[in-house]
Specification:
This protein is mainly alpha-helical. The protein has one domain (18-171). Helices cover 51% and strands 5% of the residues. Strands 1-2 form a two-stranded antiparallel ribbon.
Length: 183
Amino acid sequence: MNPSPSLPLSPPQPYGGFALRIFAAVIDLLILAVPLAVFISFLSVAMGISTAFLNLRPGEPPNEILKAFGDTFIYISLGFFLLMSWLYFAILESSGWRATLGKRALGLYVSDLNGNRAAFARTTARFFCGRLLAHIPILGIYYFLIDCAAVPFTQRKQAIHDILSECFVLRETTSGPLAGPGK
């Protein structure tokens, strides 16, 4: 079986594996949680529902939480999170860094199939083929699990959203595109 002519036979750097990608995603999620928390705080004050946070109790059913805050609050918060996440991932992964803060911290970066910096349109496609689909209620968690589970089993360590957007997540070496001055 011959590899596709559009795919390089060997990557410019080693592929980013499952564990590193998961840790990078956790770092990115923690980073994104800060502006989301600030936004939710201001939104709840603006909507006059900030006292509802004080009435939350551990183990409260999700339908009670939704009832306390209302659909509008939830949809605005989700919309903000999606917009912020898209811009965070698409801009940073298409920038000179070629990586989000989480990926950068762990020496990972995103490239197109030729090892070049991925364009903003490609990193946008990568976001919408992956992270956006994970936000669909009920169905999203299954897509997310299947998407992540593909990484260790694909030859080039690609998740489904990487395959659909024609990207790689690669590990940095001391002479690669993320290496500092003099390296």
